[in-house]
Amino acid sequence: MTLGKAQIDEEGDAGFDRRSRRRYPLHMTLTGRSLGKRPISIVGVTVNMSSQGVLFAVSEAVPAHARIELQIDWPVRSGKGEAQQLSVLATVVRSARNLVAGRIWRHDLEVTSNAKSNQHADLSALLTCPSNSGT
Hints:
By secondary structure, the protein is mainly beta. The chain is built from one helix and nine strands.
């Protein structure tokens, strides 16, 4: 039986999907940092995104509940042909192994220079993690 987002099995247990927005499998490089007294540098690749959340793979752990600032290389150029980055402020809701899930509370699409946009090495090795996990 289905009730909204809850699936009720034969035993009466409901398994709720906490996601309120559809996830899109987008693999884009990102950089960022944690905000606070001891900032942590973040380098990684997005696994999937929605308007309210982002799942990304990193080489070093980011603690749960950390507030983070990310710059995500956007795959679409502006109308003038300029490279763009999605700037995101988020809170880490889950962090396990090399996967981090963040709840987005602010975002902005910004024009950036090509040099800044293309400075990352190939980070596809980070995507060897399971991508079926989510926020």
